[in-house]
Amino acid sequence: MNTVEAAKLALESIWANRLRSFLTLLGVILGIAAIVATAAVIQGLNRYVAEKLSNLGKGVFTVQRVGLITNREQFLEAIRRNKKLLPADGRAIAERCPLAETVAWETHAQVDLRRGTLEIRDTDIGGVTGGILEIEPYEVEQGRLLTHGDDDRAAAVAFLGADVVERLFPNTDPVGKTLRIAGHDLEVVGTAQKKGSFLGFSQDNYVKIPFRLHRQLFGSQRSVNISVKAVDDASMAEAMDEVSAVLRARHHLRPADPDDFTLVTAEGINDLWRKLTQTIFAVALFVVGISLVVGGIVIMNIMLVSVVERTREIGVRKAVGARQSDIVQQFLIEAVLLSCFGGAIGIAIAYGVSAAIAAYTPLPAAFPEWAPPVAFVVCTLIGVFFGIHPARAAARLDPIEALRSE
User: Rounded to two decimals, what is the model's pTM?
Assistant: First the structure.
């Protein structure tokens, strides 16, 4: 018996028991669908983080007081140990680091904004020097960015995120109009293109104002984040070493003391994010793996039932010359096809789920191209592993005893 004939017989058997076959495959279907849908969400999040959240620009890194923190204890320790970063630190970097092409800094405050009867809550008010909006990727929708001149004279001007425009200036061109912040009227000089939300959190609820103006409105005791752009990509590592040396000297750190600041790069953000998602995927894989094992056990049980039901058929085949290897091949191919059908249905469900998640939720799911081939390999292994015992049981049947069965 060749493989094509064995596959044809297996398909006929599966089709003859369609409902039972479908119910048999529920474990495999749900397992494959769950793991592929999880992979789709994680892949979408990874792409989004790489393209949007960690896109600092070529040769750009930031210096922060706290940096990348994953738990409350680390945050409290960093706040206790690390000194506040000051504008003087930024100026020192600009003066003493020849590999730093552009140095700028910013600080933040959160306030509720109102304009007439309109309101938007928890808006991030960022005080920036002119170079920040040159380094960071803000795309202008209307008007212009803030300039060095705006910061030098602490001009009462503002650059608005898309959410602030939509909530406070609906159906109105905001450029040239005023917005009251902390009791002062600021002229709107530009607006940014919409970035959208991430995990339900808006990235457009912000206002950028000159750094000197921010200090006047909210005080000068806040730590700043310093952004540095190296002269070229190849010099970024050396530029980071220069910045680290300058700040350690300014903060009077001894050689054995750890840094009391953090250098953050796009690669560092992506590495941290990948570690988090790899942990999530590993846990999901373990949980879903249980479903696949259960599905495989169900396939084995159904194949054993099929062997009992088809005992006479097996006896006839062996009586007319079928070898044990032919019987093993027939039932093993049937188990593999059964498992792969479950995988195909699971992949189809996962594709629909990932598309629905991307369309109707804040999660940026992206169906992974590697999922179908990997899923079929996994399903094939499940079919072989859990189908080999029923196949051998069928092959070991005595043809005379098998023919006597009713």
Answer: 0.65
